[in-house]
Amino acid sequence: GDKAFAQFLTDEIQEEKKIQKHKSLPKVSGGWELEVHGTEAKLVRKIAGEKITVTFNINNSIPPSAEEDTQEQQKPDEQEPELTSTPNFVVEVIKDDTKQTLVLDCHFPEDEIGHEGEEESDIFTIREVSFQPTGEADWKDTNYTLNTDSLDWALYDHLMDFLADRGVDNTFADELIELSTALEHQEYIKFLEDLKSFVKCQ
Question: How many independent structural domains does the chain possess?
Answer without folding.
Answer: 1
